[in-house]
């Protein structure tokens, strides 16, 4: 059997992915406080790479990993050339527009929208026929809505806790998201037996 390399997104999604693999009988040697960026399944059939969520599909597309686990939100935003093999039904969240009120605020100028999802935001407001100004941020997006750097934000909501604790409301839902197993085009054919076996296990 050939070893499969899988890129995982650091953080909450990685914990859920490891839990999912463990629950399907794939034991993984992973120490939570370790700074190692590579680790393996106990039987050595899988090698995991820890990367940033936004970089998972880049590793997979560029042949750095055979497979990856990435949220549909990030995959849609980054539009990489990878196969979306299966919905893992973890990392569920919703991409929303949120603000200080439940409706879009009236603004004398273009609506300012803070987000890390520039493409999703662009496309969503273009479809609504609204011209907006995007403020690109890399994290803590809610803060921009709270302090008024932007009129509203586009971000993911999972439990809703972050919006609640910062006094923000959902104005509109854009799309639902969950984590997908994605594959490199070449690996999908050259390691098809191994990938098919993994998909069967994860079902
Ligand atoms: C994400 C997202 C929200 C939060 C939503 O942030 O950007 O801030 O989770 O989750 P909740 O609805 O369960 O509160 P993340 O923790 O990934 O950090 P970030 O601010 O760096 O994007």
TrEMBL record:
GO molecular function: ATP binding; ATP phosphoribosyltransferase activity
Subcellular location: Cytoplasm
Record-annotated ATP phosphoribosyltransferase catalytic domain positions: 52-202
Biological process annotations from GO: L-histidine biosynthetic process
Pfam families hit by this protein: HisG (PF01634)
Cellular component terms per the entry's GO annotation: cytoplasm
Protein name: ATP phosphoribosyltransferase
Organism per entry: Desulfurella amilsii
């Amino acid at each position: 059997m050939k070893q499969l390399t899988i890129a995982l997104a650091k953080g909450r999604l990685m914990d859920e992915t490891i839990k999912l693999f463990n629950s399907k009988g794939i034991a993984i040697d992973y120490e939570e406080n370790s700074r190692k960026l590579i680790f393996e399944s106990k039987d050595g059939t899988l090698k995991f790479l820890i990367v940033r969520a936004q970089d998972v599909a880049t590793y997979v597309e560029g042949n750095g990993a055979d497979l990856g686990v990435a949220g549909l939100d990030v995959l849609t935003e980054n539009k990489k050339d990878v196969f979306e093999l299966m919905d893992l039904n973890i990392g569920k969240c919703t991409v929303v527009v949120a603000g200080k009120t439940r409706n879009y605020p009236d603004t004398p100028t273009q609506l300012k929208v803070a987000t890390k999802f520039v493409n999703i935001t662009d496309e969503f407001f273009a479809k609504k026929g609204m011209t907006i100004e995007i403020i690109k941020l890399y994290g803590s997006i809610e803060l921009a809505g709270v302090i008024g750097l932007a009129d509203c934000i586009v971000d993911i909501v999972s439990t809703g806790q972050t919006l609640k604790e910062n006094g923000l409301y959902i104005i509109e839902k854009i799309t639902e998201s969950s984590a997908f197993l994605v594959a490199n085009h070449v690996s999908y054919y050259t390691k098809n037996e191994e990938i098919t076996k993994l998909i069967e296990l994860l079902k």
